[in-house]
Amino acid sequence: xxxxxxxxxxxxxxxxxxxxxxxxxxxxxxxxxxxxxxxxxxxxxxxxxxxxxxxxxxxxxxxxxxxxxxxxxxxxxxxxxxxxxxxxxxxxxxxxxxxxxxxxxxxxxxxxxxxxxxxxxxxxxxxxxxxxxxxxxxxxxxxxxxxxxxxxxxxxxxxxxxxxxxxxxxxxxxxxxxxxxxxxxxxxxxxxxxxxxxxxxxxxxxxxxxxxxxxxxxxxxxxxxxxxxxxxxxxxxxxxxxxxxxxxxxxxxxxxxxxxxxxxxxxxxxxxxxxxxxxxxxxxxxxxxxxxxxxxxxxxxxxxxxxxxxxxxxxxxxxxxxxxxxxxxxxxxxxxxxxxxxxxxxxxxxxxxxxxxxxxxxxxx
Length: 365
Description:
This protein is mostly helical. Helices cover 78% and strands 0% of the residues.
């Protein structure tokens, strides 16, 4: 039976983590269940689990997703520990022995990791049935080690006094620099969102390499490059969401400034050009000038569409993810049918319409 300290940690952190990341979990459920052919969900789930214990590549992919999920839990717990009304934990937790602390943090992280633990246990059962004993041992060892590592990190963190976080090097160096409106979110990334930025860029690079390598014999087909561009935008979806949130939380006063809507729209375009500068350089090194400019306009039109949709639906992540999935499928179909260049004016047109109609009305939604 869980100890009182374990119950407190679960109520404060595990429940809160699930509430905050409910959109991500719903998205995972959609990917794992809803996209499978109707009536054959169990068959395909069994097939995926069998490949999980039979293929090292599938296992590494699963472990990578689990590790990213765990990093998000580390960030969440660290942020919650810095909240003033949670600082009583620095006294109540430290009043018990380190062994008890470790067990309580271990139990709390186990509850947070339940979606992945459940899937890993199912895969282990199937692995035992089909005599993949080594794979099962690796899965169980990874599960225990990752949860134990999390508990150790929490234990070390709770043992330290809260220290003020130092500003990033970029902010220290750029204190005397001029900071135009379009550059403010870039500073926010290098101060608060460094991990999200690095993960987005790694995912973006993986998408580019995967798409271009998978269709190496059809690189002359502009649809291949268009799919790579769409994948790049999807890889940056979380940063697009964070940019919108940053504008609402920290820059809401700018809506009182004498900026025209067309000027604001161009400012956001410049922000995303800076954010996607490595991908823009790739376009001009991998394609001829005409195609590179066309793909650049396609990239910015899709980014602005994803950005301006948020003015309509707000900051609810569980609403944003289905919209994201729907836009992804709609744009994918348009690319498959060869309407690559038609997407540019369509996406820009819809973006402008959403921006002009909802920019000043968003707080009412």
